[in-house]
Design goal:
This protein is α/β, with parallel strands linked by helices and 325 residues long. The protein folds into three domains: 3-87, Ubiquitin-like (UB roll) (Roll); 89-178, Elongation Factor Tu (Ef-tu), domain 3, CATH 2.40.30.10; 192-314, Nucleotide-binding domain of ferredoxin-NADP reductase (FNR) module (Rossmann fold, 3-Layer(aba) Sandwich), CATH 3.40.50.80. It is 21% helix and 30% strand. The chain is built from eight helices and 17 strands. The protein has helices spanning 19-25, 61-64, 157-164, 201-213, 235-244, 258-261, 268-275, 290-302, and strands at residues 3-6, 9-12, 43-48, 68-70, 80-84, 90-101, 104-111, 122-126, 132-136, 146-151, 171-178, 192-197, 220-226, 248-254, 264-265, 283-288, 310-314. The strands form three sheets. A six-stranded antiparallel beta sheet has the order 9-8-11-6-7-10. The protein has a six-stranded parallel beta sheet with strand order 15-14-13-12-16-17, sandwiched between helices. Strand 13, helix 5 (235-244) and strand 14 form a beta-alpha-beta unit. The longest helix is centred in the middle third of the chain and has 13 residues, at 201-213. It is globular and about 60 Å long. The structure holds flavin-adenine dinucleotide. Flavin-adenine dinucleotide is lined by residues 33-34, 38-39, 122, 133-136, 149-151, 153-160, 199, 202, 313, 315-320, 324.
Amino acid sequence: MPQLTYDGVTYRAAPGESVLDALLRQGVPIANSCRAGACQSCLLRANSGQVPAAAQVGLKSTLSEQGYFLACLCHPTEDLQLEEAGGLEVAASLAALERLTPTVLRARVRTHQPLHYRAGQYITLRRPDGLARSYSLASLPDDHTLELHIRRTPQGQMSGWLFDEAHENDAVTVRGPAGDCFYTAGHPDQPLLLAGTGTGLAPLAGICKDALRQGHRGPIHLFHGALRPEGLYLQDELHTLARENSNLQYIPAVMEGGEAAGLETGKLDTVIAHRHPKLSGWRGFVCGDPTVVQLLRKKFFLAGMASREIFADAFLQAPAPQTTR
Ligand SMILES: Cc1cc2nc3c(=O)[nH]c(=O)nc-3n(C[C@H](O)[C@H](O)[C@H](O)COP(=O)(O)OP(=O)(O)OC[C@H]3O[C@@H](n4cnc5c(N)ncnc54)[C@H](O)[C@@H]3O)c2cc1C
């Protein structure tokens, strides 16, 4: 059985057990969340020993070449000497916390040194006690602070803290950025379709602003879905942005109660399909709830969008039965 040495102590991994599960089982408090390789909260570094390639999927080559890997995806085949990924973190503080709705908080985070990122990528936000979660970037790189949109998860550790206990100037750290869900120049006339529900709007709003800033000329259609009108947010800002940019259309849609508010009503994929039955030649961005992301990816592809043109970030959360830190 492979041995894992962490912080000077050696632990054994049971057959088939991931590094994350082995360390958590033996009481080592490794930060983690989705446990599916999406959030990168459990990034560790192997100083000695080779980690399987599957544990480095999705990491930048600059990280994988230095031995960084995702503990949740790592089923070790040999002994590993491990260390935290703390060296990759940037000191930061909460610059502003603003409730946009009862369940959505806009957090502005000030990093103490510049963070090079693209709007729509995500960062890992870490509390001083080690709790770490991923959040997508709604801000542009030139902005003074990082802008995050946090949905309140019932009994959620990080979102609960940010909503109820955190204060401006509280210290946090930021790691990243990660993810390939961002605008790339080079096809300024290509039609863009951005769609998501809930705080999936954060990366979409960032990508939208970035595309406009980079002079995108083609149509940009931004769909934001919610169950009811009160689940929508940033409507005024986005309507203003659309008024200022004739190639931008912002379409908020709800499942129920939309008629009175003058909103599109129906399932988001149906609303989109009604307006855009054919998507060949388009580029798509879908973010937020994993089920919605999966459905929209499929619908976009079936409507003719090439799979290489579909960029997605599913906001995978911690699995329900497990205790996380
Ligand atoms: C790439 C990526 C980007 C992300 N970007 C964002 C973002 O921009 N904004 C954002 O708000 N989130 C985002 N997330 C999700 C975020 O990382 C956290 O998972 C989320 O904020 C919940 O963390 P928490 O600590 O509050 O809840 P946790 O303490 O992790 O969860 C508490 C418990 O609630 C359960 N739970 C999860 N969903 C529900 C639900 N709907 N109802 C009841 N229980 C539930 C969980 O399974 C868990 O057991 C992103 C995730 C990923 C992977």
